[in-house]
Amino acid sequence: MAWTAAPNQFLVAETEHLAPGKALDLGCGEGRNAVWLAEKGWDVTAVDFSDVGIAKGREMATRRDVEVTWVIKDLNDYLPTPQSYDLVIDFYIHLPPDERRALLAKAAAAVAPGGTLLVVGHDLTNLEFGHGGPQDPTLLQSPETIASGLDSLKVVKAERVRRAVETEEGTFEAIDSLVRAERGVAH
């Protein structure tokens, strides 16, 4: 499937108020979100296991004249520098529960003081009431399960959100989990 080059709508809405800094895009895929963040002035590191996806991201960054640091690495093996990113995004990464918890812990640990973690993925309710996404319920999430794994951060938003999905058969609606959490600044 070819993904769109436009940034995810929730990324745009949840980060428009943030001042650019260092960003980490975990599971960046073909790089649409990383490139968009770079266009907004962020210093972006984008990580994915797919060399094909990273190559497409590099091409997009070149076409749009922005710099992104691309890392080809399995997220299970990737260890970001603790407390060093002003924004960490984890979008549509669907892993078995133990791997998911480990990735969330690494993502949360990477958030700098004053920084934000944004997690978006297909919600468990999407199986019955939404469209698309993984059909294995063990790979799906809920705002509650995501938030429960973020002890080191303050959860400021944990909700189910809906988005339009355009297909050849028409427009459908998907249900996603969205969690935004922040690390406080030590005084």
How helical, in percent, are the residues? 25-40%
* First-last Cα distance: 48 Å
CATH homologous superfamily placement: Vaccinia Virus protein VP39
Give the CA-based shape: globular
Task: Report on this structure.
The chain is α/β, with parallel strands linked by helices. It has a single domain (20-182), classed as Vaccinia Virus protein VP39 (Rossmann fold, 3-Layer(aba) Sandwich). It has helices at 9-15, 32-39, 51-63, 97-110, 126-129, 143-148, and strands at residues 22-26, 43-48, 69-72, 85-91, 111-122, 154-167, 170-182. Strands 3-2-1-4-5-7-6 form a 7-stranded mixed sheet. The longest helix has 14 residues, at 97-110. It is globular and about 45 Å long. The termini are far apart.
Name its key features.
187 residues; alpha/beta; Rossmann fold; seven-stranded mixed β-sheet; 7 strands; 33% strand
Topology:
Layout: H1 9-15, E1 22-26, H2 32-39, E2 43-48, H3 51-63, E3 69-72, E4 85-91, H4 97-110, E5 111-122, H5 126-129, H6 143-148, E6 154-167, E7 170-182
Parallel strand pairs: 1-2, 1-4, 2-3, 4-5
Antiparallel strand pairs: 5-7, 6-7
